[in-house]
Specification:
Elements lengths: L10 H8 L12 H16 L5 H22 L5 H6 L2 H13 L4 H20 L7 H4 L15 H14 L3 H17 L3 H5 L13 E5 L5 E5 L2 H13 L21 H15 L7 H14 L4 H8 L4 H4 L7 H11 L1 H4 L1
Antiparallel strand pairs: 1-2
Amino acid sequence: MAGTAGVNADPSKRQASTGSSLPDPATVAADDLVRAIQRWQAWLADEKQASPHTRDAYARDLQAFLTFIAGHLGDRPGLSELDSLTVADFRAWLAQRHERGLQRTSTARALSTVRNFFAWAARNELAQNAAVRAVRAPRLPRQVPKALNSEDMEEVLRSVRELAPEPWVAKRDVAVMLLLYGCGLRIGEALALTVKEAPSEQDEVLLVTGKGNKQRRVPLLPIVGQAVQAYLAACPHPLRPDDPLFLGVRGGALSARRLQERLQQIRRLVGLSESTTPHALRHTFATQLLSAGGDLRAIQELLGHASLSTTQRYTAVDAAGLSRVYDQTHPRAKG
């Protein structure tokens, strides 16, 4: 069986190619499949320009799938074994995830990862399996973005200042949150800014590098530039032009986890919803634009969404606001 082929392979070489933080596919896959996975990961990084976070999630999803398949078949699978998998095999994997109590959203993402790998393998003539396309993903509950109202947002900014251990940390956290709330940035986009990209009060737009390395220009409120400059003036660590703009207390790049923890503290302090996360501030930005009659296509550009359907999720947030705009602008509504 192809699954016996990888026993004598050099795992150190594989680990070097996939990165030390990624799982080693040699533990659950034969040599030919390991090489295919390494090529797929390189394609994700070089051609798809997927972020390190996305590549890490894909690697772990595929590793978990192959771990199941290895146990299901009784040996480490190779490309020929992937060719032979049936709809029943994929359903058995999904059933196992359900029995383990994994969320449907997690399973849907994992199935998407597996399909992505199989589609890439088919394009490169490494494996052909139509069964994976016939497997239905678990039905997901409709996710409606949770936006904050103006009072809650003010409470968040006030609490950030109170909870910070040092004044400069307070200025840093306020600046980051204003970038999310005032410009609609993703947390990763804000933390990816360098010192030379720091906006000032005089700047009218901010150039943002988003998913897929795509750039967009976002209008900049003066208060955002003021907050960033106030943080820079107070930061005790040396900052060179190419350094990360936002630093942690020890001088390293600030992690998204620190901001998530800060908002978790705020939720507990003032009784906000569990949905109050860094991403909720971005939702709030879009929802408030929509409430004010903003054009959906323009909001799509500001958010950096590749598809308008992603932006359209916000229409479920503010149906009342959309009705108000309709009543004010549509000729029939006026009549």
